[in-house]
From TrEMBL:
Keywords: Cytoplasm, GTP-binding, Magnesium, Metal-binding, Molybdenum cofactor biosynthesis, Nucleotide-binding, Transferase. Residues 9-153 form the MobA-like NTP transferase domain. The keyword Cytoplasm applies. It comes from the Bacteria. InterPro entries: MobA-like_NTP_Trfase, Molybde_CF_guanTrfase, Nucleotide-diphossugar_trans. It comes from Meiothermus ruber (strain ATCC 35948 / DSM 1279 / VKM B-1258 / 21) (Thermus ruber). GO terms for molecular function: GTP binding; metal ion binding; nucleotidyltransferase activity. GO terms for biological process: Mo-molybdopterin cofactor biosynthetic process. This is Molybdopterin-guanine dinucleotide biosynthesis protein A.
Length: 186
């Protein structure tokens, strides 16, 4: 019997796009908004959540529950709102993530870890990663104590670290590209 794993997708879009100069989620790149590229990469999810604090027409938006913690606030809300145990979390500015990439990441989930994440030289890629819902309490504790660094969280939890260069070789050299400015996009 084929067992198909259920997972949630969450796109963080609660930032201020200050370096981008306009709401980057809605920036049209190669014919569609950046956020649509990311949502499309998560087409295999049982639900796709947009985590933001303002409405996006046509999309169901889930708010941060703890404000002011940057991407850690977004991760917390993603884990809190998600229905499934494993949650694919990405920025709204990562148009090169793909369905095949997420399938590959999901193949590396295990019962004894809480994240699947790319790493290079001890530096993790916190967005474009899988997180287990059981992390919600730990993330909230870090928000409460002002310990907002995603790298520190990832250093402290049991996870599967996948070689970033090997992932880029397989899924494309721009895989983890996040567009801080329009000119970052190829
Ligand atoms: N839900 C949520 N998402 C956030 C928050 N802060 C940043 N993000 C998202 O996390 C991703 C990475 O953040 P950044 O690249 O710094 O984006 P940004 O904050 O919009 O950009 P800058 O204002 O230029 O720093 C983007 O998709 C943001 O929308 C937050 O407080 N809540």
């Amino acid at each position: 019997m084929l067992v198909v794993m259920q997972w949630s997708g969450a796109v963080l879009a609660g930032g201020s796009s200050s370096r981008f100069g306009q709401d980057k989620a809605l920036y049209i790149y190669k014919g569609k908004p950046l956020i649509a590229w990311v949502l499309d990469s998560m087409a295999g999810a049982s639900e796709r959540l947009v985590i933001a604090n303002r409405p996006y027409p046509g999309l169901e938006v889930y708010p941060d529950l703890w404000r002011g913690g940057d991407t850690l606030s977004g991760l917390h809300a993603a884990l809190a709102h998600a229905q499934q145990d494993w949650v694919a979390v990405a920025g709204c500015d990562q148009p090169f993530l793909s369905r095949d990439f997420w399938c590959f990441m999901l193949e590396h989930t295990r019962a004894d870890i809480q994240a699947v994440v790319a790493v290079l030289n001890d530096l993790y890629e916190p967005l474009g990663a899988l997180y287990h819902k059981s992390l919600e309490g730990e993330v909230l504790r870090r928000l409460e104590t002002g310990n907002l660094k995603m790298q520190a969280l990832l250093h402290d939890i049991p996870l599967m670290a996948l070689d970033k260069r090997a992932l880029e070789a397989r899924f494309g050299s721009y895989l983890f590209l996040n567009a801080n400015r329009p000119q970052d996009l190829p």
